[in-house]
Write a structure and sequence with these properties.
Layout (H helix, E strand, L loop, with lengths): L6 H10 L5 H14 L5 H11 L3 H8 L12 H11 L8
């Protein structure tokens, strides 16, 4: 399922990804800035599952303090998480 996400679905997903913790919002915004034009339906499903987590659990995954387990051990979730964890080039000094 490599179908690209349409504009309406992308807009809904962006709204769904709004978080209570600024740190999570920074990861999410960077992810969309880099990948929204090529986001697939499959990746959107993985991202949606991540957004179902509490802010603290999501941050633990984004910072690699924890790894996905249980229902989150899915290829789509792992792919999106990997993309979200890629550091910002300006911060690699």
């Amino acid at each position: 399922m490599n179908e690209l996400l349409d504009e309406r679905a992308l807009s809904k997903l962006r709204w769904r990804c709004r978080r209570g913790l600024l740190e999570n919002d920074l990861f999410v915004e960077r992810f969309f800035a880099r990948h929204e034009s090529a986001l697939t339906v499959r990746q959107a499903e993985g991202l949606t599952l991540l957004m179902d987590l509490s802010d603290n659990d999501l941050l633990d995954l984004l910072l690699a303090r924890k790894e996905p387990e249980g229902d989150l051990l899915r290829d789509d979730v792992l792919e999106v998480l990997k993309l979200m964890r890629i550091p910002h080039p300006a911060l690699n000094h």
